[in-house]
Amino acid sequence: MDKIAFITEAEKEEFFALYKQLYQLAGDSVTTDNIRNLKKYLTAGVNDKKLIRNNFGMNPIIRDLRTALVVADEIGMKGSGLTGIMLHAIVKSGVLTVEQVKSEFGEDVANIIKGLVKTSELYAKSPAIESENFRNLLLSFAEDMRVILIMIADRVSLMRHIKNTDKEEDRLKVANEAAYLYAPLAHKLGLYKLKSELEDLSLKYLRKDMYYLIKDKLNETKASRDKYIASFIEPIQKKVAAAGLTFDIKGRTKSIHSIWNKMQKQKTAFENIYDLFAIRIIIDSDDDKEKQECWQAYSIVTDMYQPNPKRLRDWLSIPKSNGYESLHITVMGPEGKWVEVQIRTRRMDDIAERGLAAHWRYKGVKGESGLDEWLTSVREALENSDSDSLQVMDQFKMDLYEDEVFVFTPKGDLFKLPKGATVLDFAFHIHSKLGSKCIGARVNGKNVQLKQKLNSGDQVEIMTSNTQSPKRDWLKIVTTSKARNKIRQALKEMAATQLDFAKETLERKFKNRKIDYDEGVMMRMIKRLGYKVVTEFYQAIAEETLDVNDVLEKYLEQKKRETDSHEEVVYRSAEGYNLQPQKEETNNSKEDVLVIDQNLKGIDFKLAKCCNPIYGDDVFGFVTVSGGIKIHRNDCPNADQMRDRFGYRFVKAKWAGKSQGTQYPITLRVVGHDDIGIVTNITSIISKENDISLRAIGIDSNDGLFSGTLTIMVGDTGRLEALIKKLRTVKGVKQVSRT
Q: Are 670 and 685 in contact (CB under 8 A)?
């Protein structure tokens, strides 16, 4: 009965179908003994009732079988990987230990399970919010390449099977992670087919209307598109066959996500996207003739159709670090339409579809140097505890999607860098000390600056000076996460030294002039000088943009202003008045009235100044690069752009309980007849309201109308709406709106 309770009849049927497929695909890569032991522990897991379903109600054994099938069939990884997938839920539930796995199934399987269990545990801790968990999650990915492949396969399988779920919030979270983490990883590892599927499904779940709009448009134009592709392919087919090559030609439409991306970048409608399809020529070629025959096909295509030389991509001569090899060219087809043509061999196509696993199979090796370098750089970036996890994630995502450029040292050593890398990136790529002392370079014999971008084929000689040291501006020059982290680390060390020196200098001056030091007076003076944080003040002294003697004079002025009893007091009061609206960010009761995500507590959050949310507004949380949360209104003018660029940083937020005396600043715009009496009436109404106060007012008049902006402090949307209704009743007022 236990089995029936845990596995439904429909699941039992699916289990046997999946098991049969997996058994055939695994072949002799999984031993009979391992299969027997696997069955034993799966049965024990079911009988012990320790296996639990996920948020979507999925049976863990069925889910693992689906993942294993994707890994075997669509990635091409067999053996230990499949065993590890099927056992990891059993280990996670406590039925089996990692040590038992090691002794019965081998160390290789045990290592895979360690990685899978670790990532599962981190997911349970909501990594999108807790940046340290997020860092650890990425680190665990970088430890074993196979764990990355399995996690991608699991996410593909999960995305395929949640289309009918009623758990909308969980589906959105899964789709967001697929878009910002798993699709870029699949891209980097050469799993282009799975990458496209993840992107399409993410778009389907996150922007359903847009997804179906493009899908419907593609269906409407399918007949004419198929006809065009057939007419484009026919003459090529004849010429390539006449050249004696054995080949297939496929026409394919761009993915829905790719089309949406173009619409976004070009800010245009679907009808204005012309390169909707690509042609792929796949040649059956002997290993020693691969390049020759690909270039032969390229020559035939470009003889028939005018090529765009700027759109030639040659990954035959130097393959991508993920093993991808192909020739891409965009040509002008009939009716003046641009068509992308990809030329590759059967082996290259297999690698392009299956990624790393196929590359390993053909090469007979377990790793690939370019990817090992990339994973090392990921580990370096993540292991630096000073670096901000979310900034690292943004750069990590960029690094994943970037193509490479290939540059040479004067001795002829070849280095791969992301597209857009500068001279300074290259210097730090070779060595941190070289980067820190870099003053420029000679590229192809010509002197260039640090910010010079490098192109494939450049020969680069780095020039250094012992007097050079990293500058803050360098962060704007470099594009790689490795260089950025090294510069930040160096700046932090330099800043600490400089700040100590600046403090000592100031203290010495105070002693020399026998001036008593008052911490409070000093802090108020620093604020009055316009420095937001004390470290910026000391940094200015260290960099000599602020003279120490001037600081002493301003300190004495500040002290005199505070001790004198004349009208200067009014000036200070006004200054405090201007800053008062910011008090809402430090109110002590905010945790009682705002619930973020799933009742998370102790999270630092602030109210965004771009939309000034108040109690009662529909709001969302946005994870900032510092790891805190900014609360925005749902109708914030920046919300759409933020969702497009940083959807993974969004968290749910809502007001709870009752407004507890906390006041928030909001700005009202009032338009009316240009009459001072109307403004007096408005301010009079506000002054009579309980728990509402007027903090600032600005009036402009033009052509008989006035336009005023009123900054008021109010507790919640209910009080605000009541006030707006009253203001609209004032005779002469034409419009009242919240900005």
A: no
Q: Does residue 117 lie within any of the structural domains?
A: yes
Among 333, 363, 393, where does a domain finish? Answer: 363
Q: How many domains does the chain have?
A: 5
414-418 and 438-443 beta bridge pairing? unpaired
Q: Which residue reads 């109404």 in tokens?
A: 685
Whole-Å CA distances, 605 to 173, 590, 625: 21, 9, 12
605-607/629-633 β-pairing: parallel
- Report how far apart, in Å, the C-alpha atoms of 276 and of each of 302, 313, 352 are: 20, 18, 20
Which residues of the chain are under the pLDDT cut of 50? 1-4, 125-133, 360, 364-369, 385-390, 565-592
**Whole-number Å distance between alpha carbons of 355 and 310:** 27
Q: How far is CA 391 from the centre of its chain?
A: 9
Q: What is the pTM for the complete model shown?
A: 0.60
**CATH at residue 60:** 1.10.3210.10
- Structure-block tokens of residue 339: 């068509």
Beta pairing, strands 404-408 & 306-307: unpaired
Q: What is the dihedral of CA 386, 388, 389, 392, to 10 degrees?
A: -100
Length in residues, the chain: 739
Does 600 lie in the same domain as 561? no
User: Of all helices (H) and strands (E), which one includes residue 159?
Assistant: helix 145-160
Domain-ending residue, one of 530, 553, 581: 581
What are the start-end ranges of the E strands in 520-572?
A: none
pLDDT digits (tens, 9 = 90+) for 394-453: 555 555 556 677 788 888 777 878 888 999 999 998 888 899 999 999 998 899 999 999
Number of helices (H) and strands (E), helices first, in the chain? Answer: 32, 20
Give the model confidence (pLDDT) of 250-267 as tens digits. Answer: 888 888 998 898 888 888
CA–CA distance, 631 with 653 (Å, rounded to integer): 8
Rounded to the nearest 10 degrees, the angle between the axes of helix 208-220 and helix 222-242 is 60
DSSP letter at 182? Answer: I
For residue 305, the 8-state DSSP code is: S
Same domain membership, residue 266 and residue 313:
yes
- Helix (H, G, I), strand (E, B), or coil: what is residue 671? strand
| 338 and 312 Cβ atoms separated by less than 8 Å | no
Question: Are 144 and 248 members of one domain?
Answer: no
Angstrom distance (rounded) from CA 85 to CA 19? 13
DSSP state letters, 67-130: HHHHIIIII---THHHHHHHHHHHHHTTSS-HHHHHHHH-HHHHHHHHHHHHHHHHHTT-TTT-
What lies within 8 Å, CB to CB, of 49 at 6+ separation is 2, 6
